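step=predict obj=Transcriptional activator protein ExaE n=249
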Amino acid sequence: MRVLIVDDHELFRAGLALLLRELFPDIELLHASTLSQGLNHALGEFLNIVFLDLDLPDGHGYNALAELKESRPSLPVIVISADESVETISRCIELRAMGYVPKSSPPEALHAAISAALAGGVFLPASSIAKLRHDMGTDEAPENNAGKTQSSGHSEVSNATELGLTPREFETLAWLVRGLPSKAIALRMGLEDITVRKYVSHLLAHFNLRRRTELIVMLADSGIKLGVPPVTDPAHDQGLSAGGRQGTD
């Protein structure tokens, strides 16, 4: 597994690196202290996932996330930030972050968050999920197959059958969660855009949701894991970036 950490605080990067190596002894870590360094790594390296601080010297706030996702659309990004406001978390989800981890998290919470992210799950602060669901109008959504999976005590990676999905729908779900718009998913899966849009519509209907942002919050709430994000190729992402720029949920 290859992971990029983009944060301007060397001590925090070192601590996160220690935690990652405890979880994955064979992990390969790349470090960047600025957005430009992070983008250079992202554009030239095969990577599984990025942990990104929002407050960087040359890329403050949402711009850093937006620029990274535009350059490497298939590369999952987990935001790690000192900002714990629900508004910031919601905006990062809209900008296709795969998860959000507050820097104030105690070590055991940070451990759980990173474990979930690297297993293809979504992590959001528990204190923000209820507010996010309320703001999105999904706090009264009925329990679906996702809820049943978790209520049974299932903690391993889910599969299509367990979630009541076809294999293609499950693959679409995984790429959607990792932050790809539908047009880029179509290119990634070698399908027509209209086919992927149909899969996305089926997924949202299946989980009684309307948008990708609601899907991200639901997966964080249910604890579903979709599998370790695969290594992504920066050269392949060049085509996805151009093809997916106009994509929507």
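step=describe
Confidence is low (pLDDT under 50) at residues 147-154.
step=end
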